[in-house]
DNA sequence: ACCTGAACACCGTTCAAGT
DNA sequence: ACCTGAACACCGTTCAAGT
């Protein structure tokens, strides 16, 4: 979707009105920007530039930046494949859906940050995924209210850990510090705290800083899912 | 900390160099702005205005806006009172600490949104609260790693629900729609979805939209805490 | 050392004017 | 109907100049 050089014999016709502009094209361009440069680089002007036009042109297809972000987040959610509910395996299926939801977010830099503070997502893909989660929880025999509170808690956890993950793998800001350097730095800082005032933090530095694959995420996910399982009938 | 009229006989002396500017004063002014107008209104210029000066003056005391937000979030955390760990009551104590942490955030409009994407908080109050949580979990007999992952999951949940709550009680944007109107609107939208494609969402509208005090938060909190309790030795 | 005004390089959004 | 350039009202941050 990036621009292609115009054939010279057509180049005279300045400002050929490309009919290429559309919601879809704008969302795609925005996703390119996020993937290449991160969420902070995503401005209406930057997206327009990607489409060889001006920021004002976007407003014919998109109400404002907030709507563009909504569309972007919903586009991302299309990557999730939803399993057919199997009552015997509902806990594993919920976890799989959660992993995919998180995966879809972390695959796009720090886009997850935009998901926070967006409120309930109403996009078509978001709704399909929510429906799928409810179906699985319901297949697990949970009550309507437990299902409802459950998807909510899971969604919050997925987004929050995705944000955490994106911060972790980005270092802090653009300060040029690598991830490893940053971790060493934090370890040292925690270690340097007065042990009288902070006996547990200083005593648990290793445990606090542990970063082994998705262990941290899986731990929290299991907390939630096995907690939900306790609400299922015996 | 708001300005007071200068006595007329001193007013001639224009631009009397008030020595009032300080980190503390800046954070206090910023908090006033957030409380009165919300996070989106918080700009360096707006904070400076509150202190009757220009934005540039703030940079002598604060590195940048990000640091100001860190200081703001840490200031808020000072409102939490930390209980003496009681091994018998560790689950209730953790919950109480979590409720306070969330309360401190939601007491300041949508400030919670700034806590997301801030990474691990290193402010003195944040560290004291983390230490207190670790102490209580440890008193509950949990292993170092469970304590570490536990505080992390709890912190994410507290912030995420605080953001959710602030969005909920703010309506959507400044569109002038009241909370009740917004809820009715969402209910209608959910209800209007095709039942064939969305049998669970349409069938659980009441459960999904239920908003009774802190029930939603307490449900998720209990999921996490009772999940942690399962990791405690019998 | 602290404070300031002015400037720089950006934003999101609007709007009259074009096709 | 769609697109555009220019403008409006903002941002965060820097910097030379003041005290």
Automatic annotation (TrEMBL), chains A, B:
PROSITE patterns given in the database record: HTH_TETR_2 (PS50977)
Domain HTH tetR-type, chain residue ranges per copy: 20-80
Keywords per UniProt: DNA-binding, Repressor, Transcription, Transcription regulation
Domain of life, source organism: Bacteria
Residues in the DNA-binding region annotation: 43-62
GO molecular function annotations of the record: DNA-binding transcription factor activity; transcription cis-regulatory region binding
GO BP terms, alphabetized: negative regulation of DNA-templated transcription; response to antibiotic
Name of protein: Transcriptional regulator, TetR family
């Amino acid at each position: 979707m990036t621009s292609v050089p115009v054939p010279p014999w057509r180049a005279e016709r300045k400002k050929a009105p490309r009919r290429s502009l559309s919601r879809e094209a704008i969302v795609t361009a925005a996703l390119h920007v996020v993937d290449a440069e991160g969420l902070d680089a995503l401005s209406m002007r930057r997206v327009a530039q990607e489409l060889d036009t001006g920021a004002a042109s976007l407003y014919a297809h998109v109400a404002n930046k907030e709507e563009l972000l909504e569309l972007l987040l919903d586009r991302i959610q299309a990557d999730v494949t939803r399993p057919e509910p199997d009552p015997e395996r509902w806990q594993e299926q919920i976890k799989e859906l959660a992993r995919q939801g998180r995966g879809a977010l972390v695959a796009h830099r720090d886009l997850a940050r935009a998901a926070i503070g967006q409120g309930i997502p109403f996009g078509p893909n978001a709704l399909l995924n929510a429906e799928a989660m409810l179906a699985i929880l319901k297949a697990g025999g949970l009550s309507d209210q437990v299902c409802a509170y459950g998807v909510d808690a899971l969604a919050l956890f997925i987004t929050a850990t995705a944000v955490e993950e994106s911060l972790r793998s980005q270092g802090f800001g653009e300060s040029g510090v690598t991830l490893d350097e940053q971790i060493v730095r934090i370890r040292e800082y925690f270690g340097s705290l007065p042990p009288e005032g902070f006996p547990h933090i200083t005593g648990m530095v290793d445990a606090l800083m542990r970063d082994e694959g998705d262990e941290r995420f899986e731990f929290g996910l299991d907390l939630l899912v096995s907690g939900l399982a306790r609400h299922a009938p015996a």
